[in-house]
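To the wet lab folks,

You asked to see what we're planning to order before we commit. Fair enough. Below is the target structure as tokens, and below that is the sequence we designed to fit it. If anything looks off to you, flag it before the synthesis order goes out.
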């Protein structure tokens, strides 16, 4: 499962949990009789009673542990939010035109051209390309190639780097285009032997 799918699933689960919890608290607060297993008895009940708040007052470790645990939760939530919001895809690639001005090439255009070039390669059933990095410095490519059954991955990788990747690098006028390539075979039915 990809990282984006994991983030969406986790966000959906947290959202549903918060929606159910908030909706149930709102319903009880508006006067709906709470179920038997509910932790509060009615709309005027508080989250922590005086006895619950003062229960651990005499122990010196309780509140620092609670505050540290909540701080860790807040930091994890902020880290997760920053990871979700950070753009991974490269929007533009700066192409050196030779006159000092340069030109901007859309990252998706270069991705599509590289994927089409890799898809025409013999033995490649499907290709996915993602450009990352910064446009002013050398961009990087994350490549997923699905190979046909019975294709040797070594020559396919060499062919991809020598042709499609080199062609993209030269076309964009890049000094280098480092790539991280994942190879996977296409699933196929078992062959019948007679």
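Sequence we intend to order:
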């Amino acid at each position: 499962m990809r990282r984006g799918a994991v983030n969406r699933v986790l966000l959906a689960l947290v959202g549903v949990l918060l929606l159910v919890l908030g909706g149930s608290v709102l319903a009880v607060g508006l006067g709906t009789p709470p179920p038997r297993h509910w932790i509060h008895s009615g709309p005027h009940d508080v989250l922590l009673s005086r006895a619950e708040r003062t229960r651990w007052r005499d122990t010196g470790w309780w509140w620092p542990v609670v505050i540290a645990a909540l701080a860790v939760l807040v930091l994890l939530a902020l880290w997760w939010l920053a990871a979700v919001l950070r753009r991974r895809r490269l929007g533009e690639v700066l192409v050196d035109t030779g006159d000092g001005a340069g030109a901007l090439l859309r990252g998706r255009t270069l991705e599509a051209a590289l994927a089409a070039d890799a898809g025409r390669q013999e033995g490649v059933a499907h290709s996915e390309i993602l450009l990352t990095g910064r446009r002013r410095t050398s961009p990087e490519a994350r490549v997923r190639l699905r190979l046909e059954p019975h294709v040797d991955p070594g020559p396919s990788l060499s062919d991809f780097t020598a042709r499609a990747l080199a062609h993209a690098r030269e076309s964009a006028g890049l000094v280098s285009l480092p790539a991280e390539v994942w190879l996977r075979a296409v699933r196929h039915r078992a062959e019948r032997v007679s």
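Structural context that might help your review: The chain is about 45% helix and 15% strand. Helices lie at 3-29, 50-54, 62-85, 107-119, 153-172.

Thanks,
Computational group
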